[in-house]
Amino acid sequence: MINFDRSSPHLMEAKDLCLAYDGRMVLCEVDFHIDAGDYLCILGENGSGKSTLLKALLGLKAPTDGKIIYGAGLTQSLVGYLPQQTQIQKDFPASVREVVLSGCLGGGFFPFYRAADKKKAQDAMEKMGISHLATRCYRELSGGQQQRVLLARALCAAGKILLLDEPVSGLDVGVTKEMYGIISEINRSGVSVVMVSHDLDAALKYSSRVLHLDHTVKFFGDTSDYLRSSVFERFSAGKGGEKND
Amino acid sequence: MIDMLLRYLSYGFVRNALIVGCLVALCSSVLGVSLVLRRYSMIGDGLSHVAFGAIAVATVAGMAPLAFSVPVVVLSAILLLRISDSSRISGDSAIAMISSGALALGVCVISVSGGVNSDISSYMFGSINAMSRSDVILAISLSAAVLIIYLLFFNRIFAVTFDESFSGATGIKTKAYKMLIATVSGLTVVVGMRVMGALLISALIIFPALTSMRLFKSFRAVVLSSAVISVLCSFGGIMAACFFDLPTGAAIVVLNGILFLLSLAVSRFV
Fold first, then answer.
1. pLDDT tier at B252, thresholds 50, 70, 90
2. Does residue A238 surpass a pLDDT of 90?
3. Which residues from chain B sit within 8 angstroms of residue A103, using beta carbons?
4. Strand pairing of A24-34 and A161-165?
5. Which residues of A231-244 are buried (b: 16+ CB within 10 A; e: fewer)?
6. pLDDT above 50 (res A197)
7. Could you tell me the CATH number of the domain that includes residue A52?
8. Interface with B, mutate which of A105, A120, A161, A164 (most B CBs under 10 A)
9. Which range of residues forms the domain containing residue A213?
10. Do A105 and B166 touch (CB under 8 A)?
């Protein structure tokens, strides 16, 4: 599903990508790329194919047409992912440490965790400020704490790039701000960030580039250019209208 | 009491029953944790009905029951997992359809061939006290395989069970692991059916996992506790069946049920 091309200068690249969901075409002729150090926000209305695109970038969904290329030495074991929470996880008996450690499994067939993996997980937990929760049960944590656990797990896997699907949905205002701070911190430490978001203000505040989708690419470029584009004008007017309802 | 126990243990058929019963309980309980957490509990039930249908067909057609039913059940397990994951067909009704369909087919075939014989009825309700040497060897080798697979892939099975998308994104072959679990569950159900009977085998998969999930908070602890609870219930059930002349499979399930109720009370008040 994913093509690897070491000579490509981009970390990830989509070429003429078309994606279907439940037999219905949701995205067509999508072209864009992600470079090292980017903080890319994927914007668009509900059902515009943002999460589907993220799944395709991760190799979880086969494109109906076009291709995805991992370049610059990127492999699947260097990709971190923060998915939306699933129903299954809500009553799953697992300790925080077990969840975070599972981020170290990508690639290879060694059956057990090595000392280096345990160190990596410990570091990730410290970065997220959750080391004191290590033996607690995941399902008993608050929404914000759970999200930090999943982010710590993603960090264990994210050598080069981190993909986030609605990282702040369901969190309250204070916790949301903390999450954005943590994500920016990760980006500054040299990991590229790709974030699907509903939150337009935050996207514009933190991202360096924007990909705006509406069945195809409406805008792709620097955030500063996006602010001057007609796509942004119409989109933010729509969002403003929603707020007034 | 102890004298009685020792006397029963001196009988070869009781020892065989204990070996096979405890091993099957061990396998089904560790697999059960993953199946229950992924919401696949009904698959164990569905598979046992498929296995019963397959054994009925094999018996009537004069084939070796296990040689025929093992591949049929493993294929059905893979098919059922696929159906459950497809967003277009509702998983629970598909499972109900396949399992009752297979059972109906089995019953029709039996009836055409002249009614239930003792062999078929033993698969319906289990016949743990009639374990042959080959049954014991089969149970030991199957359990060894299941346990080795489970130990080697424990961390990956946890990762895939907890979050399939994340595991897939980091390069774990999630489909292969689900196939593995389906295959091993199919094998366990077929062997377990000899012990518990087609109607009760799914209890061995579901009860220990549910009980342990009430009591423990980490995946590893839940798996270990399931294994211990399941083996204890099987041992207790088989011995109780000897002492009080009860049907063995049913006694094991009732014990599991009692432990589950106790765990409900414990988790509420502790």
1. very high
2. no
3. 166, 170
4. unpaired
5. bbeebeeeeeeeee
6. yes
7. 3.40.50.300
8. A105
9. 1-74+161-172+193-245
10. no
Question: In this structure, are strands A79-82 and A161-165 parallel, antiparallel, or unpaired?
Answer: parallel
* Residue-averaged pLDDT of chain A: 87
Number of domains in chain A: 1
DSSP conformational letter for B85: H
Residues A136-160 as b/e (b if ≥16 CB within 10 A, e otherwise) read bbbeebeebbbbbbbbbbbbbbbbb
* Among B151, B162, B167, beta carbon nearest to A92: B162
pLDDT at A243: 42
Nearest residue of chain B to residue A95 (CA atoms) = B218
Query: Chain A partners of B220 at a C-beta cutoff of 8 Å?
Result: 98
Segment B9-38, tens digit of pLDDT:
888 888 888 888 999 999 999 999 998 998
CA distance B36 to chain A (A): 10
Record: contact B169-A76, CB cut-off 8 A? yes
Q: Which of B155, B163, B217 sits opposite A137 (nearest CB)?
A: B217
Does residue B229 sit in helix, strand or coil?
helix
Compare CB distances from B169 to A79, A89, A91 and report the shortest one's residue.
A79
Higher per-residue confidence, A125 vs B94: A125
C-alpha–C-alpha distance, residues B208 and B176, integer Å: 26
A181 CB neighbour count, 10 Å cutoff: 11
- Whether A245 has a pLDDT exceeding 50, the answer reads no
pLDDT of B126 above 80? no
A63 inside 8 A of chain B by CB: no
Alpha-carbon span B49 to B98, nearest angstrom: 9
pLDDT tens per residue across span B131-173: 778 878 888 888 898 889 988 999 999 999 999 889 988 888 8
DSSP state letter for A82? E
> For residues A117 and B170, what is the distance between their CA atoms, to the nearest angstrom?
15
pTM, two decimals, is 0.86
Distance from CA of B175 to the nearest CA of A (A): 11
Q: Does residue A61 sit within a domain?
A: yes
Q: What domains are there in chain B, each with its CATH number?
A: 2-269 (1.10.3470.10)
Residues in A 74-113 with any Cβ partner in B closer than 8 A? 75-77, 79-81, 83, 86, 88-89, 91-95, 98-99, 101-103, 105-107, 111-113
- Asked whether residue A244 carries a pLDDT value surpassing 50, the answer given is no
Within-domain flag for A150: no
Smallest CA–CA distance from A58 into chain B, residue: B169
- The answer to whether A95 contacts B218, with C-beta atoms less than 8 Å apart, is yes
Tokens at A36, concatenated:
């090292």
Mean pLDDT to the nearest integer, A128-145: 89
CA distance A155 to chain B (A): 11
